[in-house]
Design goal:
49% helix, three-stranded antiparallel beta sheet
């Protein structure tokens, strides 16, 4: 085994190795900045697209419902195969957020289904601070769908974003540690 001829040779080799590692490390962070920026921009654009509403410009946002009982779909209606789509027009008291009236704007095509929709929607309550309009159209659909054998769990959009946010947080933490390490030298 060859031994270095002097301690200076050992120091020089170590210094050269540390320079190589420092160059690789700096190159890594330059590359990470190149891939981190698109990820951040993607997350921001996806979240802003998710937050955009489909309402036309100039219309106030719909009031926020705080109590929303679902229409009752009786088991015998399933046996009869009753289905239908309709639209309920509810009148909302702006002071209390309570529904003061409900009528079928578009019938489901069946009086029983219309009655169930009107009964449920007349019980709805809205946050009075968010009520900018006194009437609201609410679509309703009664569909005779068989129950799925087993419910498969699917990831919602926010659940998909969590791993990306964790990765982003990890990258920020590593950069902070690197900066702290550089400042202590």
């Amino acid at each position: 085994m060859d031994e270095p001829s002097s301690p200076a040779a050992v120091i020089e080799i170590t210094t050269a190795a540390s320079r190589v590692w420092k160059s690789l490390w700096d190159g890594f962070w330059m590359l990470s900045a190149l891939w981190l920026a698109p990820i951040v921009l993607t997350l921001v654009s996806v979240s802003s697209l998710h937050a955009q509403s489909a309402r036309p410009a100039g219309q106030p946002p719909p009031p926020r419902a705080i109590y929303t009982p679902k229409p009752v779909y009786r088991p015998e209606w399933t046996k009869q195969g009753l289905t239908g789509k309709g639209v309920v027009l509810v009148t909302i008291d702006k002071q209390t957020g309570m529904v003061t009236g409900a009528r079928m704007l578009t019938s489901t095509g069946n009086q029983q289904l219309d009655g169930a929709a009107l009964q449920a929607y007349s019980q709805w309550r809205f946050d009075p601070r968010t009520v900018a309009v006194s009437q609201l159209k609410i679509p309703i659909e009664f569909a005779n769908r068989p129950k799925p054998p087993t419910a498969k769990r699917t990831l919602s959009q926010p659940a998909i974003l969590y791993p990306l946010l964790i990765l982003l947080g990890f990258a920020v933490a590593v950069m902070a540690m690197r900066t702290r390490r550089r400042d202590t030298r």
